[in-house]
Amino acid sequence: MNLVTDPWLPATDIKNRLRHISLNQLFERPEEWIDLVLKPHERVSVMRLLICIVQASLDGPANIDEWNESLTRIPEAGLKYLEIWKPWFNLYDKNRPFLQIKSLKPGNDDKSNGPPVAKLDSTLAVGENAATLFDHGAAASVSNAAMERKLTDKQIVISLLTFLNYSPSGTQSSARLDGELIKHNSGAMDAPCINQNMLHTFVVKETLIKTIHANVIDKELVEEFYGENSWGRPVWELASTLSLKDKQMENNSVETYLGRLTPLSRFCKLQPNSPYFIYCKGFQYSTKPKKKTDSKRVYVDFSPEPSSTVIVDSKGNYSLLKSGVNIPWREITALIANREKKSLGGALPLRYLNRTESCDLVVLGQTRDPENAAKVLDLIDSRIHIPAYMMSKHKQEVYESNIKICQDKSYELFRAVEKYRVLLDDEWKGLVKRVLEKKTTKHDRKQRYLFRQKATNHYWTLIETQRHLLAQYIFLLDTDHDQEREGSKKKWHDAIQYAAKETYRILCSQGSPRQMKAYVWGWRILNRSES
């Protein structure tokens, strides 16, 4: 199975048909392929591979001027690069298996055959942390299902890439490298794309090649954000010769731009025609922000992934826009903000956007259980159209203020529903008392978090169905259509009030005198701001 010549990449063509294509086909007929057909975390991982190949084949672009001219060079440069490096893209090559470590051996303390290959796909029900949420075809016994699963080579390629980008922290399998045992209980950090449950943003264009080009960055920008000598080399050019004592290889993989695009967060080795594979923890990647101060300023001392979005909270703490916490359409202003050096802002390729034109973004992520980082709860896949008028700073500020109105109403709704429950449920009354006294347990906090999600999910669903009213209001700002603008503003604010009241009516019954009394108390809280 060679990625260069064998079809494995799922893409739609100009007739909207699903096709599996090779890397050569991608570059030979660049106008034929429209988009990838993958799950969100798979799309992130495959996009990083394709970007890495293009950037390595161009050895750049060197600067913004070369970036502007590089689109037409990509097909020819990509084909020439793949012709040279084709042997390194063989999945089962004896000397240089793709993104694998040829000298990796099973660990002596691992008495089994190793983990099943199906473990590479985090959406399959394999192992105690992998729920059947995404895998409705799982067998009755999850452990037996793992043994019965056989991934095709096409699936293995995508799953391997995703495994290396999205493996969660914690206990890993064991293996031997250079005669040294890497123990299963030695633990590992998150792979780079899952750290902090980050959301990834990519610009989307009319064809796949144009999409890839829109998400590459030039060498000057890489140096600005990641420092001198941070360009690096793709790891497949070096991985087959890996040694634990090879610090140059580790630094290339962890500290450089091209090295990180296809990370070696786990050392793996596939075995042809075997349902098992060998793996253990690999290089350790971190993107946790640290706020530092020098004599002149406060800045963020970390280099997040180029597709991530950096934000700052009300306390001045820097973090990444997260799946499950930040809903993409509510965070448009953060997503499209120009990221400044060592500071907050959107994905780096958005620096190339023409701020007078509309664009499309795809925002992708994976949400994990806060109590169990290895357990996937949900996948985020959101395509957002950004109209040209949203590039206006004034309109972004008004948009943010209106999202805050929605958030404030959401909190008001939660307090109203909780008041209703407190008056009917003595156990919940005790929990709220512990909250006020700051004596909550871990179980209390989880229960209240889940309750808040349940209390507000319907509200946000109703809000989302009406966000076209917000878009219309923002569009009419700074125009002469005063009456139409004020009418749109009123419709939008009425929609917020309706969503909160309708959600409260649905969640809080009035079937008994006691429920009616509790309902009235909660209703007063919900409507206090209108009094």
Structural account:
The chain is α+β, with helices and mostly antiparallel strands and 531 residues long. Among the domains are: 291-387, no CATH class; 393-530, no CATH class. It is built from 17 helices and 15 strands. The protein has helices at residues 23-28, 40-58, 64-69, 74-85, 142-148, 153-166, 208-214, 219-226, 247-255, 257-261, 332-335, 393-422, 426-436, 442-465, 467-476, 482-507, 513-526; strands at 9-13, 18-21, 33-36, 105-106, 175-177, 180-182, 200-204, 266-270, 277-281, 291-293, 298-300, 310-312, 318-320, 359-369, 372-386. The strands form six sheets. It has a three-stranded antiparallel β-sheet. Strands 4-5-6 form a three-stranded antiparallel β-sheet, with no helix packed on it. It has a three-stranded antiparallel β-sheet with strand order 7-14-15. Helix 2 crosses helix 4 (74-85) and helix 12 (393-422) runs parallel beside helix 16. The longest helix has 30 residues, at 393-422. Mean pLDDT is 86; it is low at 136-143 and 297-301.
Q: Give helix % range.
A: 25-40%
In DSSP terms (H or I, runs of 4 or more residues), the helix count works out at 17
What is the alpha-carbon Rg in Å?
A: 25 Å
Spatial strand order of the main sheet: 2-1-3
Secondary-structure topology with pairs:
Elements lengths: L8 E5 L4 E4 L1 H6 L4 E4 L3 H19 L5 H6 L4 H12 L19 E2 L35 H7 L4 H14 L8 E3 L2 E3 L17 E5 L3 H7 L4 H8 L20 H9 L1 H5 L4 E5 L6 E5 L9 E3 L4 E3 L9 E3 L5 E3 L11 H4 L23 E11 L2 E15 L6 H30 L3 H11 L5 H24 L1 H10 L5 H26 L5 H14 L5
Antiparallel strand pairs: 1-2, 1-3, 4-5, 5-6, 7-14, 8-9, 10-11, 12-13, 14-15
